[in-house]
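Attaching the record inline, Q. Sequence:
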Amino acid sequence: MKKLFVVITFIALSSCSYESNPEIKDAGFLDGTVETFSGASSIVKLEDVTIETIPKTKTTLTDHQGRYSLEEIPAGDYILKITKESFYDTYAPASIIAGKVLQEDYMLYLYDSNNTPPTIPMYPFPSDSGRSYSTSLQLYWECSDPDSNRIYYDVYFSKEYPPTKCIARQHRENEISVDELEVGERYFWRVCVRDYYGAHVLGNIWTFIVKPIE
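Structure, as predicted:
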């Protein structure tokens, strides 16, 4: 029954949509619900879940019906940190568009003492604070799951610090191609890993600079 539990929640995690709000000129809204499973298949709303943006501009709590709303968030890309005691911390990307209301629902997973979370992503290529002499390359990292569960990656990559633009969601490989890099620019990136049972681990921020071939 545990495998059925997780497969269904993955489907629910993907629910999102945008609505227009013409009164907002340079910011957007984010709202939705946070849920979990009670028993094998019953869905319940979660109260007092903390939702905050990374970088930290807004924070809110869900109400007794599991609903939340983050108002007037400056337009841009964010990582959402979603937390509640006795549940795994959850991280998810969110792209806020000026004049739009992003509606996104999330599932939280109860902490399971029999499940060991994945290791934190390590040993990046290019090496942290290193350099690249190519405008196209493969980002690479090492990560594993102590229980040999399937793991998935969200990859964040940007010239901005901290990197919050998600270039891959639920990626299954520990490498990804990036191209059209600019010579002389510094790039930042990080990887969030999630195991089959919902344990998330947000990796450290790495950086490299693209150098001309001399």
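Residues 122-210 form a domain with the Immunoglobulin-like fold (CATH 2.60.40.10). The helical segments are 2-13.

More tomorrow.
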